[in-house]
Design goal:
With 399 residues, this protein is of the alpha+beta class. Among the domains are: 36-129, Alpha-Beta Plaits, CATH 3.30.70.3160; 171-251, Hypothetical Protein Yqey, Chain: A, domain1, CATH 1.10.1510. Helix content is 30%, strand content 20%. The protein is built from 12 helices and 13 strands. The protein has helices spanning 4-8, 40-45, 64-75, 171-179, 183-192, 200-209, 215-218, 227-239, 242-247, 251-276, 323-333, 381-389, and strands at 32-38, 52-60, 79-81, 90-97, 106-108, 112-120, 129-137, 288-290, 296-298, 306-311, 353-356, 361-367, 370-376. Strands 1, 2, 3, 4, 5, 6, 7, 12 and 13 form a 9-stranded mixed beta sheet that branches. Strands 9-8-10-11 form a 4-stranded antiparallel beta sheet. Strand 3 (79-81) and strand 4 (90-97) form a beta hairpin. The longest helix is centred in the middle third of the chain and has 26 residues, at 251-276.
Length: 399
Amino acid sequence: MISKIDYDIGILIYSTSFKGCSGKIRLNNEDFFVSEVLDEKAISRISQDEGYAVYKLKKQGLDTHHALSSIFKKYRLRLKALGLKDANATTEQYVCGINKTKQIENICADRYSLQRIGFVKKPLTKKNMVGNHFRIKIHDSLFSHISEFKSDEKVLNFYGYQRFGSKRAVTHLIGKAILQNNFEDAVDLLLSFHSIYDSHENSEIRQMLKDKTNYSKLIDKVPPQMDLEKIAIREMISSGNPKLAIRALPLMIRRLFVRAYQSYIFNLLLSNAFDYGENLFEPRDGDVCYDKNSNLGIFTNDPSQKLAIPQVGYAYSKKNRFHYHILRILEKEEISAKDFFVREMQEVSSEGGFRQSTIKFENFLAKEPFVSFTLSRGSYATVLLREIMKPEDPIIAGF
């Protein structure tokens, strides 16, 4: 049975027949551990010479964006992450200085620490991060079932719950409103979209924020965790212009909204194509594929190639075997590929691209009550766990 939250983010199917072990995750942040894996070439480039500082950021109960914002505010140290890690976990990741002028060795705060491990001549990028290793505790599960889950199971590479806001799956809806140049709706969704999983305090605030005349009254009552909402409210009080209110948000966040909607379309595409009977696990003549070095190219009957699925953007080409499904989705959504070029806010535009159709996971090990595995960059542990646990309600199960 597919849960409502799965439908909300475009995941309409399971790709494995595994019956599931149920259970819960993330009862504590320590239960969900993730560490980034760098490629060997990047590791060899890190030295003790001068250059761009490379740090290992360890954090708990705090997402990457807020951790880096805190570091910049307190220490004026501007860092760039190779990947984003959410708040409900214990994480280790690499971050790199964007200039050579600031060199701090170590930082220790309540929810994060920063340790300088060396320098590189050129800043590291997300391409240097090849994957993530996970160790996750599953509480109250039928753990004996997990031995039946094989390391060669075929799992579709859906975008996970975090991409859409997890408990409050709204980021893709805001992104769609931005693509449609409907900035008033985008602000309303940001401020007042309600989720049954939201806290009572947040729900009350959001209900009152449906009335624009309440903005000035509520600005000082908005809780700290609603920092993006506070930015938008301040701009609405100041100018009353919803486009300026969205533009006041950090660029990374605005781009995330558009990418989230792009991800929603991708999830729908995988779901619909799988349900239609398309083979999403093996490429064929004419398909675009990733080779063993993650380079894109046309299928050449090389067994190491992995099928790449189109991600719709303004540069999308309909010359692919999935265009029938994409066209149906876009028509239903009342969106076109060219809408991903946002003339009113060009900096958030997205040309599209490709994404691997299946999750590549390695080093799978189940030892009660933990499972551990390594995923390639861009894949979500929660999507693999969804196939393993088959939860009735993913959010209540800790996803």
